[in-house]
# Entry
Amino acid sequence: MKILFLLMPVVSLILIITGCDPEVCNYYKICNSTSHKMSVLVYERDGIIREDHTKLGLHSGDCCDLLGVICGKGQGGAGVPFGSPVQADSIVIIFNDTIKVSILDSEMEDWSNNVYGNNSPLFFEAWTEVKSKKDSYYYEYEFTDWHYQKALEANGYAVE
# Structure
């Protein structure tokens, strides 16, 4: 009986540790599948560039990891790397150093009201899960020539 009484705290501790939701992290990669050079600029409030999310001069076929990782307790598979005004004030995509399009503006009331609509990297559904582990999820967002065409249209260029 005395041994059982002494083992109770150990068993309780094991149950608490194994029963808790583990921390799960989401990792993000952006890929340039266009035939154009592109840059992704993410700004915090007051026009300060968020360096962990800003990528300059991605050539066709280049992919890069976003340094900002989202971690939390419980299930993975939620959230995007710059999916809230708390995380980013504005996001600008630039093709060939000249064609610029803003996909997020802090004054935007409806996020789907951007040049890419619901295919924007602002929406979790637009990201592709490429692999998962027990406590890690890996996602990619691919910019294609469709994104480039939409950026041209948004800048007043006639596109056929």
The chain has one domain: 21-154. Confidence is low (pLDDT under 50) at residues 15-19.
